[in-house]
Amino acid sequence: MNLKRLLNDRIAAALEASLGEAAPAVVQSAARPEFGDYQANGVMGAAKRLKRNPREVAADVVARADLAGIAARCEIAGPGFLNVTLDDGFLATSLATSAPVEAAPEPETVVVDYSCPNLAKEMHVGHLRSTIIGDAMARVLEALGHTVIRQNHVGDWGTQFGMLLTFLDETGADSELLSDLETFYREAKKRFDADVDFADRSRRAVVGLQRGDPEIRRRWQRFIDISLSHCQEIYDRLGTTLRPEHVMAESAYNDDLDAVIADLDAAGLLEESQGARCVFLDEFKGKDGETLPLIVQKSDGGYLYATTDLAAVRYRARRLEADRVMYFTDARQALHFRQVFAVAGRAGFARDGMSLEHHPFGAMLGTDGKPFKTRAGEVVKLIQLLDEAEERALAEVTRRNPELPEAERREIARVIGIGAVKYADLSKNRTSDYVFDWDQMLSFDGNTAPYLLYAYSRIRSVFRRGEVDEDALTGDVLLAAPEEHTLAVTLLRLQETLESVAADGFPHLLCGYLYELAVQFMRFYEACPILTAEGDVRASRLLLCRRTAETLKTGLNLLGIETVERM
Q1: How far is CA 387 from CA 135, 233, 442, 464, in A?
Q2: Are the CB atoms for 461 and 521 separated by under 8 Å?
Q3: Count of other CB atoms within 10 angstroms of residue 95
């Protein structure tokens, strides 16, 4: 049940009948309770465009709109806005008969490209946003019935591996520990920057890797296996749905790179510049007015990220038959993806009608407003961040509930700690930078994971205290109090929220919805006695509690956040 779409369709049909041409109804949730449940703001703009009196058009739309049995009232406000208050009987029936989440009428095959860490290094906080935003989007899309193909385009190719292999050859150093490999890599990078001969040999090693040298490939694969094992440990700790089978690394496209170059050449898109092979498109110009190149092959024959990304587009179009590809990466890659998508279109790598979408995100900042780092100025390892989150959550759970067994306190702390880190990120508009603040994210007040988890556990406690058999609950939902009406409307807004999240790639819309639901439940809880009510009223309020708990759990699960029965 998408309430917004239902009202949009009905009011838009009435508006077209009134004006003689199609016009958008522009339905949105009401800004304040006195404006009803929804507002339709399209009448005024359409009437003015046609030089009609907006209030007269609004009156005609109200008369024509097929809202019987849906709206209790549809009133004209101001110069021509429509305020819609939904009918209590309609709300009650909808809650009883509609699923919390319904499948999209036209499901698509959607590739979600996310996480994508560079290997041979431990995952750090810079990998958090892509991983959890992309995972939430994959979950939401699947819930709406789309076929989702997760793609973890890990960086397992390129100069960094040439440097590492060359350094280990020279020094004889070796280790099975990823932390040691990262130390070796840092030393190799110093040599690469300072020693021209070492840099040349590193580049030759990369070419050998790309050309399939057996010994180089064998040693390289060992580094990859160690790195991917670490990544999976982090994914499991975060509770993401990424699995080893979702890894589609840069190296997976290696055999297609020669063909990518050949096809770009056949399409007349390749030009040589300072020995490198590039694509120049007029729509991409620098500040000096010069056309910016997309370099696809270096002068030494090596390939670049752009080449691999073009091969990935072609694979996703032809093999995966994707209708839509969503890339969740740092905003600094925006130009790169605009160029790749444009070149893929010109070269025919993307199918007609295939949507290539870059969904950028901002940076994680410390409370000082600078990139989030340790006190020593180092990048924070992701596993260290998660450890600290659980430790801080355990201290808070112990302070609040010292009587709980330690094992239970630790499990609650795990859910709260990991959930708080994820929710603090997901609840912000992804296009913005955000401040990582332990005190704020672990607070039990405001739009935080602990607040939502507490709201859920509070509902669960109602059923425990009342010794209520949820499966035996029957009867109709009665919406006598205004708090009951508002809670019912909020519960039925889940579908429209998820469809907006899926369309725009903004998980914070779901977070905002869940917070509003928790707030409305708390108002209902304070105003409407539940266990002390009698008969049909008690049963009705318990039904509202059950639906609220189900919706909170569903929504949090779509964000990749677990729930606990008590806190």
Answers
A1: 21, 13, 14, 32
A2: no
A3: 20
Q: CA 289, CA 330: separation in Å to the nearest integer?
A: 25
Query: Would you place residue 373 in the very low, low, confident or very high pLDDT band (cuts 50, 70, 90)?
Result: confident
According to the model, what pLDDT value does residue 376 have? 65
Please report the sign of the dihedral spanned by the C-alpha atoms of residue 310, residue 311, residue 314, residue 315. Answer: negative
CA-based nearest residue to 322, from 300, 344, 304: 344
The DSSP 8-state label assigned to residue 507 in this structure reads T
- b/e per residue, 512-551, with b = 16+ CB within 10 A? ebbbbbbbbbbebbeebebeeeeeebbbbbbbbbbbbbbb
Tell me, rounded to whole angstroms, the distance of Cα 234 from its chain centroid: 18
Q: What burial letters (b/e) apply to 136-171, b meaning 16+ CB within 10 Å?
A: bbbbbbbbbebebbbbbbbbbbbbbbbbbbbbbeee
H or E element in which residue 127 lies: none
User: Please, what is the Cα angle at 489 between 483 and 494, to 5 degrees?
Assistant: 130
Residue 27: pLDDT band with limits 50, 70, 90: very high
- Token reading at 247: 């890894």
Best CA proximity match to 331, nearest among 293, 363, 369, 304: 363
Our measurement of the distance from residue 296's CA atom to the centroid of its chain's CA atoms, rounded to an integer in Å, reads 30
Indicate the pairing of strand 81-86 with strand 71-77: antiparallel
d(CA 119, CA 505): 26
Q: Which of 326, 239, 317 is nearest to 502 (CA)?
A: 326
- What does the DSSP 8-state code read for residue 27? E
pLDDT of amino acid 126: 87
CB-based contacts of 112, cutoff 8 Å, min separation 6: 134, 137, 138, 141, 148, 149, 150, 151, 326, 328
Ranges for all domains in the chain classified under CATH 3.30.1360.70: 3-86
* pTM score of the predicted model: 0.93
First CA to last CA distance, the chain: 32
The dihedrals phi and psi of 85, each to the nearest 5 degrees, come to: -110, 125
Alpha carbon distance 141, 359 (integer Å): 15
pLDDT in tens, 224-272: 898 899 999 999 999 999 999 999 999 999 899 999 999 999 999 999 9
Task: Name the amino acid, one letter, at 509.
Answer: L
User: How far is Cα 562 from Cα 139, in angstroms, rounded to an integer?
Assistant: 13
Instruction: Collect contacts of 488-491 with beta carbons under 8 A, ≥24 apart.
Output: 488/88, 488/91, 488/92, 488/95, 488/544, 489/3, 489/37, 489/86, 489/91, 490/516, 490/517, 490/520, 491/95, 491/517, 491/544, 491/547, 491/548, 491/551
CATH entry 3.30.1360.70 includes domain 3-86 = yes
Q: Is the dihedral of CA 26, 109, 231, 256 positive or negative?
A: negative
Q: What is the DSSP letter of 41?
A: -
d(CA 297, CA 275) in angstroms, rounded, equals 9
Pair 87, 69: CB distance under 8 Å: yes
Q: What are phi and psi of 77, to 5 degrees?
A: -130, 145
- Measured at the alpha carbon of residue 24, what is the angle toward residues 21 and 29, in degrees to the nearest 5? 155
